Amino acid sequence: MKQGRTEVFEFSKEVMPRLSIINKWLVLNDRDQVLRRMAKSFNPRYTVILEKDPNIPYDKPDSGQRAKVSILDSSTDHLTVEAELSHSGVLLLTDSYSEDWTAKPLEGSSQSQYEIIPADYAFMGVPLQAGKHRIRIEYLPTEFVFGKWVSIVSLSLYMAAIIMINFRRRRH
Question: How far is CA 36 from CA 8, 30, 60, 68, in A?
Answer without folding.
Answer: 33, 10, 25, 31
